[in-house]
Amino acid sequence: MMTKKIMLTLLVLLIVVSTTVALVACKPEGDGFEFDKKLMQIGQSAPTTLETLDDFIEIDESMSATEMMMAAVHNYEQVKYIAVSQTGDVTTSMLGLDIQQAVEGLRIRKDGETYMHNNSITKKAGGLPITIKVLEKYFIDNNSAVKLLSANQKNIVLYDHKLYAKAFDIDKKFASMSEFQKENPNDPSRLFMYIVNEDTIESTTTPVKKDGYYEFEVRCNATDAFEDYLPVMNYMLKGNKGTVTKSTELSFVVQIWEEGVFKHYDVVEQYDIKIAGIFNGGVSLKSDVKFTYDEKEVPWNNYYDSAKDDFVRNLLPEDAKK
Q1: CA distance 169 to 132
Q2: Nearest to 110 by CA among 296, 260, 317
Q3: 139, 138, 100, 140: which is closest to 120 by C-alpha?
Q4: Which end of the chain is more exposed for a tag (fewer CB within 10 A), N or C?
Q5: Tens digit of pLDDT per residue, the chain (322 long)?
Q6: Where are the beta strands (DSSP E) in the chain?
Q7: 102 and 29 Cβ atoms separated by less than 8 Å
């Protein structure tokens, strides 16, 4: 699941201050941020060579939308190479103010190992002088050991419409996923932290066969589907004394190739939150998720250097520091 760090302490302080002091509107840094256009265009063609494991599930037009969805989720773990690009916006609403963050993530699985990164920056802040920046990278090996690389906000720079780190402040290794989850309940190796199965899916549309793929809609019971996801959200809100009070929506528009793997889906997730036990608000994520099974489109070595067993760090270019 792509991480969404919602840092609202400053928002709460400014809301309190604004009751007595007029704030001057300020354009957040993220106004100049652009999503990676190449990653937004991946997976336009059906997979021609799909290397799979033995437990791969084939799909056909006799299957229901629920069966197709569950097969594609299962098959995510059964392909030897897959890249998943996610772009979207997270909007946090409170006391009539909206904070909107652009979020961009990439996950690559190759031969059982996983690379993932998350980038996020404030685009709109309801006239408040707030810029929230996130830049983090994960690697999970075949033994489920986890490596984390993360930059603090002060070391994240918007340059040439993209986020770079001047330096990485956190460089940690965890012997296992269970060790990692003692600090953070997220699981970066999973496609998403939702539970999507016949028990959580409330309704679907009938799959429509198009040019090499099936398309349908899925709506889940948000309370049940968020059972694994809720601890992750509460973890991210913990520093701001926040909690999720109600999960209200999880819905998808899904495209699955006839080959039995995801082509693309749009997802909407919504939930209510409370900050400091006082302020009620809402969070909404709308994102676009695309898939490719061709390593030429998203080369593993552009992101993780297997020879060095280390991240490709993409530090801020030297000429940008002048």
Answers
A1: 16
A2: 296
A3: 100
A4: C
A5: 555 554 443 344 333 333 333 334 456 667 789 999 999 999 999 998 899 999 999 999 999 999 999 999 999 999 999 999 999 999 999 888 898 999 999 999 999 999 999 999 998 887 777 788 999 999 999 999 999 999 999 999 999 999 999 999 999 999 999 999 999 999 999 999 999 999 999 999 999 999 999 999 999 999 999 999 999 999 988 877 889 999 999 999 999 999 999 999 999 999 999 988 888 999 999 999 999 999 999 999 999 999 999 999 989 987 776 5
A6: 81-94, 97-110, 113-124, 133-140, 146-151, 156-159, 162-165, 170-174, 201-204, 208-209, 213-220, 242-257, 262-275, 279-292, 304-305, 310-311
A7: no
| Torsion sign over Cα 192, 7, 144, 141 | positive
User: Two tokens at 23?
Assistant: 């704030």
pTM: 0.90
Token pair belonging to 79: 């392909």
DSSP string, 144-158: --EEEEEE-GGGEEE
